[in-house]
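Let's practice the habit of predicting before peeking. Look at the sequence and jot down your guess about where helices and strands might fall. Then scroll down.
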Amino acid sequence: MALKFDILKKHNKTRLGKLYTRHGIVHTPAFMPVGTCGTVKAMLPESVESTGAEIILGNTYHLMLRPGADLVEKMGGLHKFMNWNRPILTDSGGFQVMSLKGLRKLTEEGVSFKSHIDGKTFFLTPEESIGIQHKLDSNITMSLDECTPFPATYAEAQISMQRSMRWAQRSRDAFQDRDGYGIFGIQQGSIFKDLREESATKLKKIGFDGYAIGGLAVGEGQEKMFEVLDYAPEMLPEDKPRYLMGVGKPDDIVGAVLRGVDMFDCVMPTRSGRTAQAFTDYGPINIRNARHREDPRPVEAECDCPLCRNYSRAYIHHLQKCNEILAVMLLSWHNIRYYERLMQKIRQALSQDTLEDFVKDFYKKQQQGDIEPLV
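Done guessing? Here is the structure:
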């Protein structure tokens, strides 16, 4: 095992930690912006780093289709290829492949699927997925799993989970241990507690550098997700990082942190940036709305991103109405900075023993909502 993880402090289930990788330290709880094709959409790598992000996520599925793992390896690995010198986590490709539905066929050996780009057929096995991630030079490799859809019957979830655990063993066997790199196993089991327990037991027996909670944020809703998170993280090893995949909204993240999760990723900050939505301490706002047309305020007064330091809501509203690319760039920058500020506030509150006050203030502001400008 070649990734070191230190837990510095705890408050109930919430943990303050440090994850050490070959390309730097990740302070947890941490949020990972998503760099689908070797880029965080509408952002320079330098801009992403300026938000406070210490680690990003790359997508194995998209990168294996284009430009191909061999080319990325030839170019010196994903860090050099995209000019990001900090840690990178890559997903296994399983989620994207499973979402192809009519374009894929699942067997015990792996998944056969047709590219959404040109229809070319590929066959992804656990061993192939690990090999691709090795060529990408990912600091954190994810084992290949079957992301169980929701809803699923108990029998469906059981079959899917057990296959994922067999694939987890094959993934671990294929992984090449080296200093500063590691592999995470993925817990499955849908919303069924005993299946989650069985999955965790099998993963712990195999032994991983970290553990992810998969199969959530797939349509079950926040209430059911939190019901699972009330017990799932504690089924995983105490001394290893815990990663909730694909989550989520700010209140999802705060709720999950309180339940013992250390790492998150989501496309929401950049996707929202492309649809005129900005996240604030007082909830999300749609900058296209007419009420922002003559609003001289920044999107968020407390934010230190370039959008909030230099531009008014009225200007961003104008850019959106004109479909200017600058609006997407600035909103994406702001949203990622908002997420990173949120994680920094959580870590600071943990460090200063003020977590309960932070949480109370967070929910109070979210419920209050964005304040209309004074006339």
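How did you do? The chain has a mean pLDDT of 96.
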